[in-house]
Amino acid sequence: MTVLTGNIVTLRPAEEGDVPALAAIRATPQVREHWRGGDDLAAEVAADHKDPGLGNFTILYQGRIVGEIQWYAEEEPDYRHAGIDIFLDPEVHGRGIGADAVRTLAAHLIDDHGHHRLVIDPAAANAPAIRCYAKVGFQPVGVMRRYERGTDGTWHDGLLMDLLPEDLVR
Question: For the whole prediction, is pTM greater than 0.90?
Answer without folding.
Answer: yes
